Structure formats: C-alpha cells, structure tokens
Amino acid sequence: MWFFVRDPVRDFPFELSPEPAEGSPPGPWALHRGRKKATGSPVSIFVYDVKPGAEEQTQAAKAAFKRLKTLRHPNILAFIDGLETDKCVHVVTEAVTPLGVHLRTRAEAGGPKELELSWGLHQIVKALSFLVNDCSLIHNNVCMAAVFVDRAGEWKLGGLDYMYSAQGNGGAPPCKGIPELEQYDPPELADSSGRAVRETWSADMWRLGCLIWEVFNGPLPRATALRNPGKIPKSLVPHYCELVGANPKMRPNPARFLQNCRAPGGFMNNRFVETNLFLEEIQIKEPAEKQKFFQELSKSLDSFPEDFCRHKVLPQLLTAFEFGNAGAVVLTPLFKVGKFLSAEEYQQKIIPVVVKMFSSTDRAMRIRLLQQMEQFIQYLDEPTVNTQIFPHVVHGFLDTNPAIREQTVKSMLLLAPKLNEANLNVELMKHFARLQAKDEQGPIRCNTTVCLGKIGSYLSASTRHRVLTSAFSRATKDPFAPSRVAGVLGFAATHNLYSMNDCAHKILPVLCGLTVDPEKSVRDQAFKAIRSFLSKLESVSEDPTQLAEVEKDVHAASSPGMGGAAASWAGWAVTGVSSLTSKLIRAHPTVAPGEPNVSQRPTPEGLPAPAPTPAPPTPVTSGHWEAQEEGKDTAEDSGAADRWDDEDWGSLEQEAESVLAQQDNWSTGGQASRAGQTRNPDHKSPESDWSSWEAEGSWEQGWQEPSPQEPPPEGTQLTSEYNWGGPEPSDKGDPFADLLARREVGTQPRPDSWGDDNWGDDGLETESRQAKAELARKKREERRREMEARRAEKKAAKGPMKLGTRKLD
C-alpha cells in the first residue's frame, strides 16, 4: 500500500516570489512579495528557514508567529495566514514595504512631508502604548527594521521576535544575537549590577528615540550621535531629548509622550493627524460632525500624500455615501481624490457611484454633479451617458429652481459629444426651444443660446439647417441684452454652417436690424458680424469657384472638429454669464419673452435721452429708439453685456477687417440722427415642439405689418407702367424722385424695415389698395351720419309721446 504525503508548502494558498524583496530588513526573516492564488490580491510573506544549530532563532521565529497571530491592532502588522513546518515558517501579512525602503523612495521623489512623518510616528507610539499599557508587553525591538509601511502610507509595527512580558513571569529578555539590532539597546542594559532604576517602558522609549533620529537623519552610526538632534523638527526636539536621556526613570510613558506631542503647537498637532484620527472613529461620529468634516476635507486634500488619499480617504468617502447618507458633501472631496486614480481605477470605484448619484432626487446632489461634471465626463462611455445619465439630467430643464436649469444647460456642453442621434437632435432641441422661448430668467435664455452655438457642430445637417438660424434670430429679439449679444455671436461662431443664400436672405436682415439696438455692445457685435458675412459673400462674388469650399461644412455630417470657432466664444460666454446669473436670479427677476415690458430700456450711449411719453394706442414709429426693457438693474445688465466686447473673434474678424478696414465708427451725428428710432418689442412666445424653431420662432416673425400710407399723389406713374427699356431723353427726371420726396413728408416708415422705400410694384399697389380702403371707410361714415340725421328728423316731427297713452298707429 502506497501512502502519499501532501506537501504543505505546495498546497499553500499563496504564491511567493522566488527572491526576497529588495531592502529586506536585517534579522532572521526574509521578506517576499506574494499574491493570493484565488484572487491575485497582493500580500507580503515573511519566510524563516530552519537551520541546524539555530535553536534560539527558531524559537524566536515561532514565538513571533504566535504573537502576530494573536495581537490585533490597527497599528500592528496585520496577520492574514501562516504555515509552520519542520523546515520553514511562513507568515502572510498585508502588503507592506520596509520603512527604510519607503523613506528612500520618498527622498528620491522630493522627500517625505513633515505631516506624513508626524502621523507615522504617531502610529508607532500608539502601538507601543497599546503593548505596554494594555497588554503589559515589552516590544524589545523598536527600530527601523521593525517598522513597515502599507500602500496607504500607514506605519505598522512588526518585528515581534523578541517580545516578552512586562510582569517578569516569562523569564529574562530573549537574546537577539544580531549586532544590527543590538545597537539600539539602551545603555542601562550594559549595567550588569541591575542597580539602575527604570520603568518597564524605559528601554522601548530609548529605542523609539533612536527610530526618530534615523527617520530624520538616516542610519544611526553610533549611540553618541543621538546627542545631536540634526534635522529633527524644533517642535519635536524637547520630547526627543526626554526619550534619549541618560536617566531611564525620566523617560515618559508612550501615552504621555503622545499627549505631549499633541499639545497645542506640538509636532503631532496638525490637520493631517486630526483627519486620520477622525477617519478612525468615523463610524461612531454624529451625522452633523460627518457633514462638517467632509465639507472641510477638500481644502486639505492638496497637502495630503497621494497614497493616503487613494487608499484611505477614498474608501471612507465611498462608504459614507453608500451607507452613511452623507449626501452631496462627499462629491467635492470624492472628485478631488479621483484625480489620483488611473482610468481603470476610476471606472471601477467612482463611475458606479456617479451613475447612482444622478438618479437621486436630492437637489443639492444634482447641482453639485452638474457643476463638477467636467472632472468625470471623460471617464463616461456613450451607452452609460445615453441610457443611465441623460434621462435623469433632462429633468433639470423642467426644474422650478433656476440654478438647476442653468447648470443643466451648461452641462450639455460636455454631454453633447456623447449623445446619440435621438437624444441630441430631438430630445435636447425640444428642451432648448422651450427654454429659449419661455424661460422667465434672461440669463438662462442667454446660456441656452450660448450652448446651442457651442454644440452646433455636433448636430446633424438637417437639424442645423432647421434650428440654428431660427434660434439665433429669436435670441436677437430677446429683451435681455446679453441674449441678443449671444445670438449675434452665435451667428458669427457658426458662420461655416450656413449657405450663401441663408447668409444673404436670413442672417444679414436680422443682423442689420440690430445696428440700431439701444445697447452699444449689441450694435458693436452686430457690425462685426455684418462685416464678416459681407466679406464672405464678397469673396464668393469675386470668385464663384470658392462657393464649394466655403459651403463644404453646410451639408457635412456632425463633427466635433467643426466647432473650433464656437469653442473660443462659448467657453468664455458661459463663464461670464454664469457669474451674472446668480445675482440676477436672486435680486432681479427677469421678464419672460412673452410678457409685456414695463420699465425703460437704457438710453444708447452718446444719444439724448427720450422724453417720457404715455404709451400710444397705435404702433410706435421708427423715429424713436425702442423704450421697453425687462425689469432689471440696468447697470448690471449693461456691464455684463459690455464684457462681450472683449471676446476674441479670431480669424473671422481679421478676415472682415482686411476687406473693410476703413469702416466708419458710430459718430455723434450718426447717433443723433437715429435718436428717435424704435423696435417693436412684442413678439410671440414659440411653442416647445420642433416646429417652433421655424414657425413662430423664425426670423420673419420679427417684422411688423406695413403701417397705413397716404394715397399716392395724382399723376404718379406706377412702376408697371414705366417703360424701363425704351429710349428716354437724358434731361428727363427720375420718375421715382417726386414719389420718394413726397413719401418722406407724408408717411411714417415701418420699424425694423430695410429702409424708407418699398421696392418694385408691391409698394405702390399696396398704397393703391390702402387708398381704396380709406375711400370706402369715408363713404360708410357719411352713410352712417345720414341715417342718424333721418332718425332725428322723424322723431322731432312726431313730437313727444303723452304719458298713459298708447300708440295705435
């Protein structure tokens, strides 16, 4: 019969590296890197090989195995598993690095911060206090070789080989037999008489002093070097001197030493130590204390070590959100710590939490997510955005809180590149149409226009053709001045997306109407845009072969590369307007586009202020500036609008200036000549469906019906009756000259019209129809007067009726 003996080393559930890790501490143990076979998680494996004739070392190794297995403390090396055979002893712990190796690595990266060292020493002293005061044990091996550092930067106390009881029932302290470790023994141990009076912790506190010296100054050459503190911080020097004093009786207890260093102004009294102490007890803290802690945490994270943030702060933040109902306060520190993670770690740890947060109904959390979307948007894939995030974000467009609506609009700048066809071209445009037309907050309407100009390059060609011109035209009629500026800049930033026909027939008429806008900032930007579009049309007119090149983007598919022109102005505009938005929303509610305006619009710069007059029942003539404006602080509005002038137009403006470098500026005379012109502020509020972009919100809706005209003078020849091609004497006057001169005297020009003339037959035929209508009205009036006169005569002829009589005839 065959008996098979299983090899315990081969069946060990951990795999270790063949060679010891670099920088293994002196002593009987060899430190190997390892991993768990089942999960692949990293571990550290301490290996002791049994050697003949080393019975004392073998007993010390087995004692350390037993002590480490039974002692559990956050500051003592964490035991995971172990193996003890006749040939070897394996001790598996959490993945750690020897302190000496860690300090050398940190020195190469610029040196460890004092905050990091203060917390590390705090942990070692706390471990010694636990052993001495709670367990009545003497470590007997405190030195650099007995301290290890985990991946979070936490210092752990190991090296329990030579530990013994402080009560003396375990016999004499074990002998080390290793010179590298015996150099840290205190001087009183060399006194064989035993007459030195000392405390049970005196020897360990001396060794702690040696550890402190080595942490700041490097390896200890000899015991006499302890007299020179070297680079030890001044706040720690008095307490260090107590540790290495010649009188062992004067060396403080570990708990007392910790208390002295935590006193005001002490070495361990800092924000980093306080943060760590709070995190250790966070499970028993009150909710109000947690809220305050997380609110202040983000301010300190920049000064904390990166490993500490990744491996200690981040798990606590995730736990607080998942189980502690911490809410929106964890978002700021969470995203700040996320900067230290790799893309893979970010996907695994933070993205699931972010997706879950978007489904929250907590307004504070929703607005924090929208405000900080820039920090995590690059880690979101398109399916996640379209199926799990966008359906929740669009609810913000309908929120009653203006701040959430504004942040939702701004977030579309980041989400648009990842949205699919339906969400971008249908769902989002539907919400933008409603916001731009019906939102009562002017800054939100302005931001909607800005955002649309930025994401225009991502829209499909058909959507661009249907939406952009109508939306920007609608913005130019907004009572909020920055919205009108945004509409003009939107046209300019997306100039490459319009055909030449659209530029000539749709865009330029809208921009020309803004050249008499009451706000100088609107006029200035309108002139810039007009020059740009005119130079574009002129270049195509000079060389028609350029048409295909100029219109290459008009029918192109959506592409992020086409949004270069929009990027420069949209990024600035959102930032500038958002700073204005909160003030306006809090202090001055704006007037919705469909509501009547009740306050005076600011007088244009350089123009005389119009005298206040009662509102006429008929349409206001174009001889006055438009006097209506939404009820806002005019100084804030005009100041915000003026900031648009600082925007860099880039190559678009340079192209215009090269063609029209000699354009005249607004002069005093020119402004005075226009001091009486007005625009009609009344315009319909479009519906929120797709048709609203073209139907009610289209640019044609801005023009008014013709005002009544005087009948043409007798002898006026209609255009259709004029012989355009026949020979005429050169001395014959212009047939239109007399007509135009008389119309200037007897008619009122239409507001927002091209000029004072009606071109072609339509104008004269309209005047003829109006004359006939006026004649018919006069005839009806005369007929009515005749009927009233006849009734009066008939009543007077019969005389008054007598009381009590009845009319029989």
UniProtKB/TrEMBL annotation:
GO terms for cellular component: centrosome; COPI vesicle coat; endoplasmic reticulum-Golgi intermediate compartment. Residues 16-35, 590-809 are annotated as: Disordered. GO terms for biological process: vesicle-mediated transport. Residues 626-643, 729-745, 766-776, 783-796 have a biased composition (Basic and acidic residues). It is found in: Cytoplasm, Cytoskeleton, Microtubule organizing center, Centrosome; Endoplasmic reticulum-Golgi intermediate compartment; Golgi apparatus, cis-Golgi network. PROSITE patterns: PROTEIN_KINASE_DOM (PS50011). SUPFAM superfamilies: ARM repeat, Protein kinase-like (PK-like). Residues 605-619 have a biased composition (Pro residues). It comes from the Eukaryota. Residues 644-656, 754-765 have a biased composition (Acidic residues). Regulates COPI-mediated retrograde protein traffic at the interface between the Golgi apparatus and the endoplasmic reticulum. Involved in the maintenance of the Golgi apparatus morphology. This is N-terminal kinase-like protein. It comes from Myotis myotis (Greater mouse-eared bat). GO terms for molecular function: ATP binding; protein kinase activity. Residues 660-679 have a biased composition (Polar residues). PANTHER family: N-TERMINAL KINASE-LIKE PROTEIN (PTHR12984:SF3), SCY1-RELATED S/T PROTEIN KINASE-LIKE (PTHR12984).
